[in-house]
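Quick log. Single chain, no ligands specified.
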Amino acid sequence: MTRGRCPLLERYNRTLSADPSNVLYHIAAIKGPFQRQPPDVLEEETLPGRELAELVALGLQSQGFDGITLEDAAPIFLVTAHSGGLDYTLSCSLYLPDEVDPVWIVECDPHYSFWQRLVGYSEEEELGRLLDALAALLARDPRPREVRWFRYIPSNPFHTERFSPTPRRR
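-> predicted structure:
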């Protein structure tokens, strides 16, 4: 039996290797003083993560993204944004509730699955535009002290050497 080549897999690999900037890191781990402790009276406006979610929603809206919605899905907040022809949901949450240096996560999963990308669907432009805008707004705001980008989130994002400083591979 001879081993054949899979044209779909070859095309997928060629696409990935042709332009290294098309590998997108869609999870941002953030160190910053966002409100993490709710007051004695729990109100929707004061749940941990709302301040970060509002920053993301207002920042994306100011950068021209349409269809911005903010939803409380305790214990996370969901921000929906329209980019290109696709709707993306960004989840904003407290990841490590450290007393001194809490870690926050903003995650925007790709819209297309591995199999859809394998047969030629691409969202590099849409997702890349959204992640670049998110990186820009986090860089402009004074609250995030450090931001690291990942494709898969490690158990402690700030105790690992494998990360990207931007959402695109450098």
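Residues 15-21 have pLDDT under 50 and may be disordered.
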